[in-house]
Each structure stands twice: as C-alpha cells, then as structure tokens.
Amino acid sequence: MYTKELVVEHDVIAGHIYDRLRLDYRYAKPKDVSMAEAKASLATKLRKLKDHEVLCWSQALDDLAHGREGHPPSAQEIYFAIKRVGYRSAEAASINGEVISEPKANDEVDYEALWRSADDKQKFKFFIDHKFCDVPPFVRYWFVKYNRQHRGWTAHESNMMIGFWKPPFIAAHSGAMAKHQYEILDYFRERTND
Fold first, then answer.
1. Helix axes 35-47, 75-91, angle to 10 degrees
2. What total number of domains does the chain contain?
3. Which residues, including other chains, have CB under 8 Å from residue 125's CB and lie 6 or more apart?
4. Integer Cα distance of 54 and 14 in angstroms
5. CA-CA distances (angstroms) from residue 26 to 19, 21, 61, 102, 174?
6. Of 91, 120, 138, which residue constitutes the final position of a domain?
7. What is the tens place of the pLDDT at every residue in 153-188?
C-alpha cells in the first residue's frame, strides 16, 4: 500500500494533530507546556511508531473522540491510540492470509466475457478483483440484478460491494481505505451468517 518514496514527517504530523485538537476541543495542550514543546514531545513519540502506524493518526483521533467530553487526549493517549489503529489496519490488511492489492486497470479486459464466465464466488468477488470505474455500467447493472435474484441483496448492498475500491472520503489515506473495505467485507460476512 505504501511506496518506498513515502517520507513520514513526524513534526508536520504532530502539527496536524494539534491543529485538529484545536478544532475539536476548547484547548489542545496542557496549560504548563508551550505549543512548540507539546508538538516536539508528540513528534518524539511518533518517531517510535512505524510509518504505516503514524499515517493512521486521523482515525486514531476519531476513535479517541468517541465518549470523550471536554478534555483533549494527552500525547501518551494519542500515541497508544495510533498504535492500536495501526495494529488493526495491519491486521485487517489480509483476509485468510491473502493481502488485498489494488487491481491494475487494463484497457484490453473484456469485462462482459469475465462476468458471463464467472461462477458464483467469482461474481461475489467481481468488484474486489476489478475497480468499479473500469467496469462498464451494463456489467454493474448485471451485478445488481444477479445479486437481487440469487442472493436477495438490495440495490444498496450491491452498490456497497461495487464501491469496494471507492475512497470513503476525499484524500482518504490507506488506513481509511482498508477500514472501509473491511467494513464492507465484515457486513457481508455477518449477513451470510444470519
């Protein structure tokens, strides 16, 4: 998911975290510490994390915000929240030992023939294996129609699967994409267990 050219700037991310805390809370740091000292302290803690963990900072702040009123999280709480989210996203990076990798677009793919020759399992995974924006609209229509007839899915449920590779929000980082994808897979796993 990450390229080798990716450079994580811990000081910049610490600044982004405190900017976000200023928006979410009345104050962002302890009163006895200057903002520069708070950012430097947090940046030092972030350097102890792996790069893919640090990039999960936004989701970690979202998780910390639930059930919290008034007081912003400390640098230590932020550190452990990022570590938890990073662990979950790394754990979620595989299903049954298979890493989900983004499908490569190919102009020469005959999606109609692929759909017609696919068995039920391949039809279920069709939009995991192929990005929705590469697949012609008529195949997406067939997907919705097939799932309604054979699986009892609503159009919304089919569109959830069609949007498997669709970013959950603009400029979504890979941790958010992985979370979005595993929420979809968990939904259908629980649905089949009913």
1. 30
2. 2
3. none
4. 10
5. 12, 8, 15, 41, 30
6. 91
7. 998 998 999 888 888 887 777 778 888 888 888 888
